[in-house]
Write a structure and sequence with these properties.
heterodimer, A: about 425 residues, alpha/beta, FAD/NAD(P)-binding domain, D-Amino Acid Oxidase, Chain A, domain 2, 3 domains, 8-stranded mixed sheet, 7-stranded mixed sheet, globular, B: about 100 residues, alpha+beta, Alpha-Beta Plaits, two-stranded antiparallel sheet, 4 helices, 6 strands
Chain lengths: ~425, ~100
């Protein structure tokens, strides 16, 4: 059946993993089509904003020179916020400068458009403004995608599902049930416009250098989540998100959390005078290792968010999407060469994921999420106490330092019994190391 | 001054689909009779305030939707049928 609707591989979704998979397969000479519901790739795509260099360069060696990038991240911060203050930690290193960059901030509407041009140049077809409505199966093997276009059935030897957190393809193919609310983080973000000079002055940056600030504690009203500021060229990406289960429990709206963060005394001066140019919302699959579904089936592979490949503890997702897209494409190519699209052969994809840092890293933090989820005081009591203790320690008020030490230890034991502190400390170390 | 969702939605380019509502409530009586005790979560978690409780029913302002699809799992009764807007309609981010 060699018709215009028949391909070697079909990709559902033109995000980072889908476009990467399409690029790698098309470069290898496969006939590839990408089905995308947006008017152009990027129109519907949202992330916090950091794209890492090394995994991207593995596929697109020229991207650092050619792609529309915002700022090269030379400074990464973690701030623990109390209601009035912040304990600020961070790393700034010229080793991350443009010569050996670690990551760049990007705006996905622009970046994905560039990426899709590369995919088209490599010979793949991108079909925009088209929704996938079903998978076409024969003998329990995926052989195509049904779309909402007239005569919209598309056939292929392989389908790669890169259709994001709510992957319709994965659900229709029977690989995934719905996520649970404690496996999803609901995050909203604003694009706030400032001048380049304002950004460079406020964040202590020189031209093209960028910074990230991740904030916990009062940043998300004490809910399990994170708020952030990422510097772009002449805009800031400012966002806040928590587990959906937490938001429902606390009856919060994500925008209220974001506004709470923006008006924090340590945050407001950084945003002062900025104008909001866009408001975005996104759901992030943060269930980690235990939430990754079966990622293969005869004729089908899942990549990126569709497979739940996000490492929330390291703010990594874009890199895992690109890496999984590449590995899926290489597996699909091998399957094509052998003419074997069986589940047994495609299980090779999972094996490769397991051997890569993707699953190794997810496994490392496999039980960390549920540990913190059950211990709300990590996001309420501890941040407050940390900021208060540091403030106490550095306040000069003629109280002897030894007495200050005691006061700090006493305040710790007051908020949490000694054995509670001990089990939190040991537990957190065990889950994170 | 804190900004409301309504203020922020003005910044987003959304191409409305006047012909097709992509979100529907499957059984409205569930919202009325069973979800009251749970405070109808969709009315507070939705980042675009698509869902409001008016005259004993959920009103769906689907043309405000930012397509995060949180409502699919967020509804405690799986009572929201969410399909993506038809091709070319819905949100079109300029920055992303």
């Amino acid at each position: 059946m060699e018709t215009i609707n028949t391909f070697d591989a079909l990709v559902a979704g033109a995000g980072l993993s889908g476009l990467t998979a399409a690029y790698v397969m098309a470069k290898s000479g496969m006939k590839v089509a990408v089905v995308e519901r947006g008017a152009h790739p990027g129109a519907k795509n949202v992330m916090g904003g950091v794209l890492y260099c090394q995994p991207t360069e593995q596929v697109f060696p020229e991207f650092a020179r050619e792609a529309p990038l915002e700022r090269c991240i030379v400074q990464q911060n973690l701030w623990v916020l109390s209601e009035t203050g912040a304990l600020q930690t961070g790393v700034k290193n010229q080793a991350w400068n443009k010569q050996y960059p670690n990551g760049f901030t990007v705006l996905r509407a622009k970046f994905d458009k560039w990426l899709s041009q590369k995919v088209i140049e490599a010979g793949a077809l991108i079909i925009p403004e088209t929704n996938v409505t079903d998978v076409i199966m024969e003998n329990n093997t995926v052989i195509g995608l049904r779309t909402d276009r007239e005569n919209g059935d598309l056939y292929a030897k392989m389908v790669i599902a890169s259709d994001g957190v709510h992957s319709l393809v994965a659900r229709k193919a029977g690989l995934k049930e719905e996520w649970k609310n404690n496996q999803l983080s609901l995050t909203v973000k604003e694009i706030i416009v400032l001048s380049r000079k304002q950004i460079e002055d406020r964040f202590h940056l020189t031209q093209d250098e960028g910074a990230t600030i991740e904030c916990v504690g009062d940043a998300t009203n004490g809910l399990m989540g994170v708020a952030f500021i990422y510097t772009n060229k002449d805009t800031l990406s400012v966002g806040a998100g928590t587990l959906l289960s937490e938001m429902i429990r606390a009856r919060k709206n994500p925008n209220d959390l974001l506004e709470h963060f923006k008006t924090h005394p340590c945050i407001a001066p950084l945003l002062e005078g900025g104008k909001t140019h866009e408001y975005l919302a996104h759901l992030i699959p943060e269930g980690g290792y235990h939430a990754v579904p079966k990622v293969y089936k005869a004729g089908l592979l899942l990549t990126g968010d569709a497979a739940g490949l996000v490492n929330s503890f390291h703010r990594e997702g874009s890199n895992l999407a690109i890496m999984s897209g590449k590995i899926a494409a290489e597996t699909a190519l091998e399957a094509c060469q052998r003419g074997d699209f069986s589940e047994t052969f495609l299980s090779l994809y999972k094996k490769k994921l397991d051997e890569s840092c993707i699953m190794k890293d997810l496994k490392k933090y496999a039980n960390a999420g549920s540990f913190f989820e059950k211990r709300n005081h990590f996001f309420t009591l501890y941040p407050n106490t940390a900021v208060q203790s540091a403030t106490e320690w550095l306040t000069v008020d003629s109280v002897p330092k030894r007495l200050k030490q005691w006061k700090i230890i006493r305040s710790l034991v007051r908020i949490r019994p000694f054995f509670g502190l001990l089990s939190d400390g040991i537990g957190a170390l065990r889950k994170m190391l | 001054m804190k900004k409301t969702i309504e203020d922020k939605l003005f910044t987003v380019a959304i191409k409305p689909d006047e012909k097709k509502n992509h979100i529907s409530i499957i059984r409205p009586e569930v919202c009325l009779r069973q979800c009251g005790d749970l405070n109808r979560p969709c009315t507070f978690f939705c980042p675009a305030k698509v869902y409001t409780w008016e005259n004993d029913a959920i009103t769906v302002a689907y043309n405000n939707c930012l397509e995060c699809v949180t409502c699919r799992t967020g509804c405690p009764f799986e009572n929201i049928d969410y399909q993506y807007p038809r091709g070319s309609f819905g949100v079109q981010y300029k920055f992303g």
